[in-house]
Design brief:
Oligomer: heterodimer
Distance between the termini of chain A: 61 Å
Strand content of chain B: 15-25%
Largest sheet of chain B: 6 strands, antiparallel
Mean pLDDT of chain A: 92
Strand order of the largest sheet of chain B: 5-14-15-16-13-19
Shape of chain B: globular
CATH class of the largest domain in chain A: Mainly Alpha
CATH architecture of the largest domain in chain A: Orthogonal Bundle
Helix content of chain B: 10-25%
Number of helices of chain B: 12
Radius of gyration of chain B: 23 Å
Low-confidence stretches of chain B: none
Shape of chain A: globular
Strand content of chain A: 5-15%
Radius of gyration of chain A: 24 Å
Number of domains of chain B: 1
Chain lengths: 450, 545
Amino acid sequence: MKCFLRLAGGLAVLGVVALLAFIYVPVKRTAPSEELAAGWQPEPGQGEYVMHASDCVACHTAPGGEPLAGGRAIASPMGTIWSTNITPDPETGIGGWTLDEFRASLVDGIAADGTHLYPAMPYENYRLMTEADIRALYGYMMNEVEPVRNEVETTSLAFPFNLRFGIRAWNWLALGHASGPSAEIAGTPEARGRYLVEGAGHCAACHSPRTPFMSQDGVTAADGNFLAGGVIDGWNAPALHGDGSALKDWSVAELAAYLATGRNAHSAANGEMGLVVEHSLQHLSDADNLAMAAFLKGLDGDAGGIPETLAANSGSLPEAPADAAGEATAAMLTEAQPGMPEGARLYLDNCSGCHFVTGKGAPEIFPELAGNSLVTGSETGPLLSVILNGADVPPTGKRPMHLVMQGYAERLDDGEIAELASFLRSAWGNDAPAVSAADVAAVRGAAATH
Amino acid sequence: MPDFKYPNQIDELKYGVRLKMMQKPSQQTVTVRRSGDETALPYRSLGSFLPGNGVGGAGTHWNGLNWRPQPEELRLRSHVAENWGEGIIPEGMNLGDYPVSYDELEPHFTHFEKVAGISGKAGNLNGEIQEGGNPFEGWRSEDYPMPQQKRTWDSQKFHDACTAAGYHPFQAPAGIASTAYVNPYGMQMGPCNYCGFCERYGCYQYSKSSPQTAILDALKRMPNFECRTESEVLRVELAEDGRTATGVTYWDEAAQEEVFQPADIVILSSYQLNNVHLMLLSGLGEAYDPLTGQGTLGKSYAYQMNGGVTMFFEDEHFNPFVGHGANGVCIDDFSVNQNDFGALGFIGGSYWRSGTFNGQPIRNMPLPKGTPSWGAGWKDGIGKWYGHAMSIGSHGSHMAYENNHLDLDPTYTDRHGRPLMRMTFNWQDNDLRMNQYMKSMMEPLAASMNPDLMQSGFKGPGAQYDVRPYQTTHNTGGHIMSETAAEGAVNRYCQTWKAHNVFAMGAGNFVQNTQYNPTGLVGGLAYWTVNAIRTQYLSNPRPLV
């Protein structure tokens, strides 16, 4: 008994020591993934370009606020995380940070003062950036961004998530991969595309599923579940390869056009992806958007040839006819018999003018509903929100038009929208479960509180 | 900036009847008289023409018919002189040549058609006549940027009747998208769904050529672009020597005060009536006096001479609710370059068109003459004839005349205390004869289609201008282009003769009106002018002629 107590006491002391060490022993920052030559300097504009590729603006800018000055609320399952000021203001921003401290925030998730960043910051992905890009980004942030004095709201999550040392344990799970690119980054467009998708682009942060511990299940192309589809903030971030790939029927050129302009022959970017296009992808070169598209399409095998340009001002773009899966629905809508289901009738009265009886829409302006991942997703909130509140596609350099779809909240009640949405989820070969009026009411109510 | 939401936007009572998108006469109007010996009275209730209001203006609420003029129409005086001699020109007609040629404008017509997104089929591609297009059009360097629109049943019947008669039918050139479309600025259109709500409405479908679909969002991305809404320019301010403008003074509706906006270049791009009004108020030229022929501002105001035949078929179903503003099959067999003016006894011509362009129930319910206009008889008539009528329209040229003109009204003022503009306008024999000729040719064609009933509406000899029924919003002239400063208000680059940094856009530049809807020529002249500003004026600001 005495022996047992001694053992238990010893273990308790050891546990406390371990916990204290866990909390107080300084973390180690990862060394640069490569040694750059003495006197290395980034190319002019390289740092700003990396900033765009990394989409820093989307999170680190408050609505209506100064770029990069922080203060945007980011909803997480643990509570609201407030993005920080990353302008070089010495007191409220990162003006006092050294290169090593800056690098650690990108590759280790550790701030200059040693605290752990919440993984809303995608350091699992930024970890794969080259030392040259990190240095270029640091130089841009410190020397080219105007310092903005902006004290942002402090993130204060509820217990136990307010104990940031816990993230240290989480990082053991999440940061198993080495820092630096996962593969050769030059030589082919696909290699460049892989580097951008895995690293700065941090596509896996949304498009890879999460492990039970909420770390990314698939960080590099070598991982089985890489970009196999995830859920973020109630939105499906669809799979980008494999059987359920949202890109199945897209060409490399069409995918690249979507990235650069937020729209293509099939679909339109809204919600989170709209922000990515608006703040990041539209600012990248055609070559890089094509490279990312080629890499992503290549995940399912040969991507075919890579075009030289994307999103030409192409003039007339005829709409596609119904495909085999959609023919029966198209025929039913064309006949327009009075006895047709209510959802189909509502579609004819409200939607078919733009999206057509074929469900194919019209290239670059009216998205396809047949096979559309937003229509058929496991998360029905976005589809119902689009019907209720409308949607928009941000203006981009090559496609400056701010495309707006109107909402139907005033015109259709919850039951009608449920019928309509259930029709969309089962028409033209779509095969997703029905939604209920209660589902619609929940989304309508959420919009009302915003 | 407006957003055009379905179904709110297709509210016929609000927009079609109560004219929500048009200027309110309390805000801005003209006074009208038919001759110098009448006293002009304010146009207090919009009827004959509908000036648009707000961002986009007429470019937003139009029907979408986009035509180029025929080359002969731009050198009409020479065309007459060469073929019949100047002796056939009636007394009092200001027949002129435009100081710019079709060939010079051709690249700009083509560019405008791409920007605006026009659907159609070429009839004359670099001089080669194309099957199915308009063989009488001027040459074009490229086909239309979108394929031609589909045909409704009435236009198909008209097409077949024209073919049988030996005429040359073709699909109307439409500023209504036949497919999805991306223009040279990356701006976009969506394919039309034939809802039939074009004229008087904004298009909720992104299908109509308009500033909203063609250019505004692209402009918003320019760092040096700013759009101030609720701002009405009151006058252009001239430098002391009167040879340049210093800027404009506008009324800020929100602040309820006048604001001076300095400018290096002033481009007057409001509606024709307003442009002429601003120029008269600002002294951008000498006001035209019909008694002496002196002065140029307000000279050669012109309009459009239209007519038509309506046919009723008990056994045909035309589904008038299917259509769009520029729907229809046309013929140019009676157009300006086909007519023998000497033999026919008039100068001018028209194009004919048949196609449903709206099935809106309040304003478009054609009934046989003699049907009661209310009560049980009216209801019976609607029951019998709704959906069974089709029509052919004649859209004709209108010449400029010494006594049709615009000047400042001596009596009436607007809410800013500025004199209203006065319109002196009446129909003239030459154009009425043209119209009667169209009647004489159209009625046999209509009869060949074997309707159960048919009725004509063509103004004839002695017709007087009536400002109450809607006719057309194709008001032209008033600041016409000219070879010399003595003849017009602007030179061949639409630059005012008075102040070289003031340019005027729009149909006010028209020397006389063409037989077509004016937009194609307005757009071509705009890009022609912009090209001159960019390539000639900016590097060395000066009078370009």
